[in-house]
Amino acid sequence: MGMLKKIQYNCRQATFLLEKKAFKPLSFYETIELRIHLAGCSVCRLYGKQSAMINDMVQQLYKDSEKGTYKLNDSFKKELQLRIEEELNK
Amino acid sequence: MPVTQAAIDPNTWVNAHADYLYAFAIKRIADEEIAKDLVQDTFLAALQKVRTFEGKSSERTWLTAILKNKIVDVYRKRSSVIVSSDIADAERVQQDFFDTDGHWTQQHYPREMGVEEQYLENKELGQALKKCMEKLPALWLSVFTMKHIDDETSERICTELKVSAQNFWVIIHRAKLNLRACLQKNWV
Question: CA torsion, points B176, B27, B58, A81, in degrees to nearest 10?
Answer without folding.
Answer: -160
